[in-house]
Amino acid sequence: MKDFSRLVSTDLERLSSTYDGEQLPQGRLSALGDPAMQGHLHNWSIIGGVMRGEIKGQIDLGFAARVAARVAEIEPDIVEDQSRLAPSRKLRVRMHRLAQGLVQLGVAASVAVVTVLGYQTYSASDSSITEPASAVMGASVGVNLASFQAAAPDRGVAQVAPAAPEGKDRRQLRDSGELQQVEFDRINNYVRGFVLDTAAR
Amino acid sequence: MLSADVNNEAAQDAAIVRRVQRGDKDAYNLLVIKYQHRIIEVAGKFVGERSDALDIAQEAFIKAYRSIGGFRGESSFYTWLYRIAVNVAKTFLESNSRRRSDLDVDAPETEAQDTGGALRSDETPEGVIESEELRQVIAQALRELPDDLRQAITLREIEGMSYDDIAVIMKTPIGTVRSRIFRARQFIEERMSRLGG
Predict the structure, then answer these.
(1) Do B25 and A66 touch (CB under 8 A)?
(2) A58 backbone dihedrals φ, ψ, rounded to 5°
(3) In angstroms, rounded to a whole number, what is the distance separating the alpha carbons of residues A48 and B153?
(4) Among candidate residues B87, B42, B145, B187, the one with its CA nearest the CA of residue A55
(5) How far apart are CA A186 and CA B164, in angstroms?
(6) Which run of H or of E encompasses B126?
(7) A82, B1, B31, B78: which has the highest count of C-beta atoms within 10 A?
(8) Are A60 and B163 an interchain contact pair (Cβ–Cβ within 8 Å)?
């Protein structure tokens, strides 16, 4: 047979230490909603209050119940815990810094690309380059604007070529003349191919 | 109460407040039961009327509950609650003095309205008991308590010590401390019930 008196006594002893904040049970403190339990809590509150000299005059036994009734109707304004907010703020700052870094990197890369392109363009117009773009890119039957554009400076080379210094090797000049001729032929072939291709379409 | 005991009580309350912040309203009721007498007395120092003190204390507990999410434990819960109660009392006094000065113009009429429905201090409604007789009963019960029970409940209620500290002082296991405090409360409660009936 179960000893109910002992069970109740154990529950009350646990409630007594819960009241003192010593032994908070897991989950909600739903036992506090029980009127019998609340009666004990009120008595213990009065005992403590009288012992500490906090209670003078009258004792309103319904005070806590009235507050509980009001509390049941309202919800607290929950403010987010600052310690939980802190990491997200840190994350936002880090993301901002990362974005700034990426933008700077993008700008630097753009400048580098422009520099390389500029250098290549400058180099392409340099008279010392005799190798035509078409020779590198390979001949194409279709339209090859790159080789066509690259060929244009070569024409300039041809114009500049006669202005070469007098002491220059004749053989070199002859080779250069042959190369120019080959280039002109290629250009003509491209243009012809382009015209014929366009006409065929 | 020693500062270490105050810190201990604050830590215990902080654990209960965390429950409230997670939505446990019953946990808040525990704090109300625990601090109701102190806060009513604080309010009573600002106003003469007992009913006003009760209104102020009730408003203080409601305000504290509404803003419990903002309580971060920088001070003890009681200190925080105390400040709220003082602010509510000051606001009450300000609005009351303004209202009183407005009402002074029609003084005879206000005399008739003043207590309309509200309790007067000389009334003793149901659920309100005089503390003097109760104080005597509790004091007598404490005298009758066995020494070990009296020492345990005194260290807890007056000194505010934790069960751990009481166990060290009384050189006894913490389970015994828990039991002694509970039995002391039961003993005094039994004497109090005789008063009621």
Answers:
(1) no
(2) -85, 155
(3) 9
(4) B42
(5) 100
(6) none
(7) B31
(8) no
Q: Tell me whether residues B36 and A67 touch, CB distance under 8 A.
A: yes
Looking at residue B97, the DSSP 8-state letter turns out to be H
Residue reference for tokens 């503390």: B131
pTM, two decimals, is 0.60
ipTM: 0.80
Please tell me which residue of chain B has the smallest CA distance to A28. Answer: B24
Q: One-letter amino acid identity for A148?
A: F
Let me know: does B33 contact B79? Beta carbons within 8 Å.
no
Beta carbons of A16 and B181 less than 8 Å apart? yes
Q: Which of B9, B15, B72 sits opposite A24 (nearest CB)?
A: B15
The tens digit of pLDDT for each residue in B15-50 reads 899 989 988 888 999 999 999 999 999 999 999 888
* Tokens 């810190």 sit on residue: B7
Backbone angles phi, psi at B129, to 5 degrees: -120, 150
**Alpha-carbon Rg of chain B, whole angstroms?**
21
Phi-psi region of B49 (alpha: psi -120 to 50; beta: other; left: phi over 0): beta
Judge residue B77's burial from the number of C-beta atoms within 10 Å of its C-beta, 0-12 exposed, 13-18 middle, 19 or more buried. buried
Give A94-136 as a 3 state SS string.
HHHHHHHHHHHHHHHHHHHHHHHHHHHHHHHCCCCCCCCHHHH
Burial of A129 (0-12, 13-18, 19+ CB in 10 A): middle
CA distances from B120 to A73, A181, A198, B46, B117 (A): 28, 122, 109, 17, 9
Among candidates A69, A96, A3, which has minimal Cα distance to B65? A69
Q: How far apart are CA A54 and CA A51, in angstroms?
A: 8
What number of residues does chain B have?
197
Per the listing, tokens 């390389």 go with A116
Q: Which residue has the tokens 């946990």?
A: B27
Please spell the DSSP secondary structure of A45-83, one letter per residue. HHHHHHHTT---SEEETTHHHHHHHHHHH----PPPPHH
Each residue's pLDDT tens digit, B122-178:
445 566 777 788 899 999 999 999 999 999 999 999 999 999 999 999 999 999 999
